User: What shape does this take?
Amino acid sequence: MNKKHDNLFAKSRALTTGFRFDEQVVKVFPDMITRSVPGYELVIPMTGMLARRYAQPHTNIYDLGCSLGATSLAMSFAVQADGIKIIAVDNSAAMVGRFRNTLSENRGGIPVEICLENMVDTNIENASVVVLNFTLQFLDVEQRQALINRISAGMNPGGVLIVSEKICFENEQEQNDQTNWHHDFKRTQGYSDLEIAQKRNALEDVLRPETEAAHMERFKQAGLSNPKRWFQCFSFVSYIAFK
Ligand code: GEK
Assistant: This one.
Protein backbone atom coordinates (compact mmCIF):
# COMPACT_ATOMS: atom_id res chain seq x y z
CA MET A 1 0.00 0.00 0.00
CA ASN A 2 1.55 3.33 -0.99
CA LYS A 3 1.82 5.78 1.90
CA LYS A 4 0.64 9.28 1.05
CA HIS A 5 1.95 11.77 3.62
CA ASP A 6 -0.56 13.02 6.19
CA ASN A 7 -0.54 16.82 6.46
CA LEU A 8 -4.30 17.29 6.92
CA PHE A 9 -3.84 19.36 10.08
CA ALA A 10 -0.65 21.18 9.06
CA LYS A 11 -2.32 24.45 8.06
CA SER A 12 -4.07 26.62 10.60
CA ARG A 13 -7.80 25.89 10.42
CA ALA A 14 -10.63 28.01 11.75
CA LEU A 15 -12.62 24.89 12.60
CA THR A 16 -10.91 21.73 13.73
CA THR A 17 -13.75 19.86 15.42
CA GLY A 18 -15.51 16.74 14.17
CA PHE A 19 -12.89 14.36 12.78
CA ARG A 20 -14.46 12.11 10.13
CA PHE A 21 -13.27 9.04 8.26
CA ASP A 22 -13.87 10.64 4.87
CA GLU A 23 -12.09 10.53 1.50
CA GLN A 24 -9.41 13.03 2.65
CA VAL A 25 -8.52 10.88 5.67
CA VAL A 26 -8.63 7.65 3.66
CA LYS A 27 -5.99 8.99 1.25
CA VAL A 28 -3.43 9.45 4.03
CA PHE A 29 -4.72 6.84 6.49
CA PRO A 30 -1.82 4.33 6.55
CA ASP A 31 0.66 7.18 7.11
CA MET A 32 -1.61 8.89 9.65
CA ILE A 33 -2.19 5.82 11.81
CA THR A 34 1.44 4.62 11.86
CA ARG A 35 2.69 8.12 12.79
CA SER A 36 -0.06 8.68 15.39
CA VAL A 37 -0.44 5.34 17.19
CA PRO A 38 2.79 4.17 18.82
CA GLY A 39 3.02 0.40 18.39
CA TYR A 40 0.48 0.14 15.55
CA GLU A 41 3.03 -1.56 13.30
CA LEU A 42 3.59 -4.25 15.93
CA VAL A 43 -0.01 -4.70 17.06
CA ILE A 44 -1.29 -5.55 13.56
CA PRO A 45 1.00 -8.54 12.83
CA MET A 46 0.66 -9.73 16.44
CA THR A 47 -3.12 -9.72 16.00
CA GLY A 48 -2.57 -11.98 13.00
CA MET A 49 -0.39 -14.26 15.09
CA LEU A 50 -2.96 -14.48 17.89
CA ALA A 51 -5.73 -15.12 15.38
CA ARG A 52 -3.69 -18.01 13.99
CA ARG A 53 -3.56 -19.60 17.45
CA TYR A 54 -7.25 -19.17 18.33
CA ALA A 55 -9.02 -19.50 14.96
CA GLN A 56 -11.11 -22.67 14.94
CA PRO A 57 -11.88 -24.58 11.71
CA HIS A 58 -15.27 -23.77 10.12
CA THR A 59 -15.88 -20.57 12.08
CA ASN A 60 -15.98 -16.85 11.40
CA ILE A 61 -13.40 -14.19 12.25
CA TYR A 62 -14.63 -10.61 12.60
CA ASP A 63 -12.60 -7.44 12.10
CA LEU A 64 -14.85 -4.62 13.34
CA GLY A 65 -13.76 -1.14 12.19
CA CYS A 66 -11.50 -2.64 9.52
CA SER A 67 -10.55 0.68 7.82
CA LEU A 68 -8.28 -0.24 4.90
CA GLY A 69 -8.01 -3.82 6.07
CA ALA A 70 -4.59 -3.98 7.73
CA THR A 71 -5.81 -6.34 10.47
CA SER A 72 -7.96 -8.44 8.13
CA LEU A 73 -5.03 -8.89 5.75
CA ALA A 74 -2.63 -9.79 8.58
CA MET A 75 -5.11 -12.47 9.69
CA SER A 76 -5.80 -13.63 6.15
CA PHE A 77 -2.07 -14.31 5.69
CA ALA A 78 -1.44 -15.74 9.18
CA VAL A 79 -4.42 -18.04 9.87
CA GLN A 80 -4.00 -21.63 8.82
CA ALA A 81 -7.29 -23.44 9.54
CA ASP A 82 -9.90 -24.82 7.10
CA GLY A 83 -13.31 -23.36 6.34
CA ILE A 84 -12.70 -19.91 7.85
CA LYS A 85 -14.09 -16.63 6.61
CA ILE A 86 -12.99 -13.17 7.75
CA ILE A 87 -15.85 -10.66 7.94
CA ALA A 88 -14.44 -7.13 7.79
CA VAL A 89 -16.85 -4.35 8.82
CA ASP A 90 -16.61 -0.57 8.60
CA ASN A 91 -19.26 2.15 8.41
CA SER A 92 -17.12 4.54 6.33
CA ALA A 93 -17.95 4.18 2.64
CA ALA A 94 -14.61 5.79 1.74
CA MET A 95 -12.67 3.21 3.79
CA VAL A 96 -14.63 0.24 2.49
CA GLY A 97 -14.34 1.42 -1.13
CA ARG A 98 -10.56 1.70 -0.88
CA PHE A 99 -10.23 -1.65 0.94
CA ARG A 100 -12.33 -3.38 -1.76
CA ASN A 101 -9.92 -2.06 -4.42
CA THR A 102 -6.79 -3.24 -2.64
CA LEU A 103 -8.21 -6.63 -1.61
CA SER A 104 -8.38 -7.77 -5.21
CA GLU A 105 -4.58 -7.37 -5.50
CA ASN A 106 -3.43 -8.36 -2.06
CA ARG A 107 -4.95 -11.28 -0.20
CA GLY A 108 -3.81 -14.16 1.91
CA GLY A 109 -5.17 -17.68 2.20
CA ILE A 110 -8.34 -16.90 4.14
CA PRO A 111 -11.21 -15.22 2.22
CA VAL A 112 -12.29 -11.76 3.38
CA GLU A 113 -15.86 -10.47 3.01
CA ILE A 114 -16.10 -6.68 3.35
CA CYS A 115 -19.30 -5.18 4.78
CA LEU A 116 -20.24 -1.50 4.80
CA GLU A 117 -22.27 -1.28 8.00
CA ASN A 118 -22.34 0.00 11.53
CA MET A 119 -20.75 -2.68 13.70
CA VAL A 120 -23.61 -2.34 16.19
CA ASP A 121 -25.79 -3.97 13.49
CA THR A 122 -23.32 -6.73 12.58
CA ASN A 123 -24.67 -10.20 13.19
CA ILE A 124 -21.96 -12.04 15.14
CA GLU A 125 -22.25 -15.81 14.94
CA ASN A 126 -20.03 -18.89 15.10
CA ALA A 127 -17.05 -16.62 15.91
CA SER A 128 -13.69 -17.90 17.08
CA VAL A 129 -11.84 -14.56 16.82
CA VAL A 130 -13.32 -11.06 17.03
CA VAL A 131 -11.06 -8.01 16.69
CA LEU A 132 -11.75 -4.39 17.54
CA ASN A 133 -8.44 -2.70 16.72
CA PHE A 134 -8.70 1.00 17.68
CA THR A 135 -12.43 1.12 16.91
CA LEU A 136 -14.42 0.75 20.15
CA GLN A 137 -13.04 4.16 21.17
CA PHE A 138 -15.16 5.79 18.42
CA LEU A 139 -18.47 4.21 19.52
CA ASP A 140 -20.80 6.07 21.91
CA VAL A 141 -19.80 4.99 25.39
CA GLU A 142 -23.45 4.06 26.12
CA GLN A 143 -23.44 1.57 23.22
CA ARG A 144 -20.23 -0.22 24.14
CA GLN A 145 -21.53 -2.75 26.70
CA ALA A 146 -24.35 -3.91 24.42
CA LEU A 147 -21.86 -4.44 21.56
CA ILE A 148 -19.44 -6.46 23.68
CA ASN A 149 -22.37 -8.49 25.06
CA ARG A 150 -23.52 -9.34 21.52
CA ILE A 151 -19.98 -10.22 20.48
CA SER A 152 -19.59 -12.50 23.47
CA ALA A 153 -22.95 -14.18 22.76
CA GLY A 154 -21.82 -14.93 19.18
CA MET A 155 -18.47 -16.42 20.19
CA ASN A 156 -17.73 -20.14 20.47
CA PRO A 157 -16.16 -21.58 23.62
CA GLY A 158 -12.39 -21.15 23.33
CA GLY A 159 -12.80 -18.07 21.14
CA VAL A 160 -11.07 -14.75 21.79
CA LEU A 161 -11.88 -11.07 21.64
CA ILE A 162 -8.94 -8.78 20.85
CA VAL A 163 -9.40 -5.09 21.63
CA SER A 164 -6.83 -2.34 20.99
CA GLU A 165 -7.62 1.13 22.29
CA LYS A 166 -6.31 4.43 23.43
CA ILE A 167 -7.04 4.51 27.16
CA CYS A 168 -7.12 7.26 29.78
CA PHE A 169 -5.84 7.34 33.35
CA GLU A 170 -7.56 8.24 36.62
CA ASN A 171 -4.44 9.82 38.09
CA GLU A 172 -4.01 13.35 36.77
CA GLN A 173 -0.22 13.26 36.84
CA GLU A 174 -0.16 9.99 34.93
CA GLN A 175 -2.65 11.34 32.39
CA ASN A 176 -0.44 14.39 31.82
CA ASP A 177 2.72 12.29 31.51
CA GLN A 178 1.05 9.90 29.06
CA THR A 179 -0.25 12.78 26.95
CA ASN A 180 3.22 14.37 26.86
CA TRP A 181 4.86 11.08 25.89
CA HIS A 182 2.34 10.53 23.09
CA HIS A 183 2.90 14.06 21.79
CA ASP A 184 6.68 13.50 21.93
CA PHE A 185 6.13 10.39 19.82
CA LYS A 186 4.15 12.42 17.29
CA ARG A 187 6.91 15.05 17.17
CA THR A 188 9.49 12.35 16.42
CA GLN A 189 7.20 11.30 13.56
CA GLY A 190 7.44 14.80 12.08
CA TYR A 191 4.15 16.30 13.27
CA SER A 192 4.34 19.99 14.24
CA ASP A 193 2.86 21.39 17.45
CA LEU A 194 0.09 22.99 15.38
CA GLU A 195 -0.78 19.66 13.75
CA ILE A 196 -0.79 17.92 17.13
CA ALA A 197 -3.02 20.58 18.70
CA GLN A 198 -5.49 20.72 15.79
CA LYS A 199 -5.78 16.93 15.53
CA ARG A 200 -6.34 16.70 19.27
CA ASN A 201 -9.14 19.24 18.94
CA ALA A 202 -10.69 17.38 16.03
CA LEU A 203 -10.77 14.11 17.98
CA GLU A 204 -12.05 15.71 21.19
CA ASP A 205 -15.69 14.55 21.00
CA VAL A 206 -15.10 11.76 18.52
CA LEU A 207 -12.54 9.51 20.24
CA ARG A 208 -13.61 8.86 23.84
CA PRO A 209 -11.05 6.82 25.74
CA GLU A 210 -11.89 4.95 28.94
CA THR A 211 -9.77 3.59 31.77
CA GLU A 212 -8.39 0.07 31.80
CA ALA A 213 -10.68 -0.70 34.77
CA ALA A 214 -13.73 0.23 32.67
CA HIS A 215 -12.62 -2.09 29.85
CA MET A 216 -11.88 -4.98 32.21
CA GLU A 217 -15.25 -4.60 33.96
CA ARG A 218 -17.07 -4.56 30.59
CA PHE A 219 -15.38 -7.77 29.41
CA LYS A 220 -16.38 -9.53 32.63
CA GLN A 221 -19.96 -8.20 32.47
CA ALA A 222 -20.19 -9.67 28.97
CA GLY A 223 -19.23 -13.11 30.26
CA LEU A 224 -15.66 -13.06 28.94
CA SER A 225 -13.00 -14.49 31.21
CA ASN A 226 -9.38 -13.80 32.02
CA PRO A 227 -9.07 -10.42 30.25
CA LYS A 228 -5.41 -9.50 29.86
CA ARG A 229 -3.34 -6.64 28.52
CA TRP A 230 -0.85 -8.09 26.00
CA PHE A 231 0.58 -4.82 24.67
CA GLN A 232 1.07 -1.27 25.84
CA CYS A 233 2.97 1.72 24.49
CA PHE A 234 2.02 4.85 26.42
CA SER A 235 -1.77 5.18 26.32
CA PHE A 236 -2.20 2.65 23.51
CA VAL A 237 -3.03 -0.84 24.74
CA SER A 238 -4.22 -4.18 23.44
CA TYR A 239 -6.32 -6.66 25.41
CA ILE A 240 -7.41 -10.24 24.90
CA ALA A 241 -10.40 -11.85 26.63
CA PHE A 242 -11.62 -15.44 26.39
CA LYS A 243 -15.01 -17.05 25.88
C1 GEK B 1 -6.68 -1.10 11.54
N1 GEK B 1 -8.79 -1.48 12.70
O1 GEK B 1 -6.00 -0.55 10.67
N2 GEK B 1 -19.06 0.72 12.91
C2 GEK B 1 -18.12 0.35 12.01
N3 GEK B 1 -16.94 1.00 11.85
C3 GEK B 1 -16.71 2.06 12.64
C4 GEK B 1 -17.65 2.51 13.60
C5 GEK B 1 -18.87 1.78 13.72
N4 GEK B 1 -19.81 2.14 14.59
N5 GEK B 1 -17.14 3.61 14.23
C6 GEK B 1 -15.91 3.83 13.68
N6 GEK B 1 -15.67 2.91 12.71
C7 GEK B 1 -8.07 -0.57 11.81
C8 GEK B 1 -8.01 0.83 12.31
S1 GEK B 1 -9.52 3.11 12.64
C9 GEK B 1 -8.60 3.70 13.97
C10 GEK B 1 -9.33 1.35 12.80
C11 GEK B 1 -8.18 5.11 13.92
C12 GEK B 1 -14.47 2.78 11.89
C13 GEK B 1 -14.01 4.05 11.20
O2 GEK B 1 -14.71 4.29 9.99
C14 GEK B 1 -12.53 3.77 10.99
O3 GEK B 1 -12.28 3.21 9.73
C15 GEK B 1 -12.19 2.77 12.09
O4 GEK B 1 -13.40 2.44 12.73
C16 GEK B 1 -11.20 3.27 13.13
O5 GEK B 1 -6.29 -2.06 12.20
O6 GEK B 1 -8.40 5.76 12.91
O7 GEK B 1 -7.58 5.57 14.97
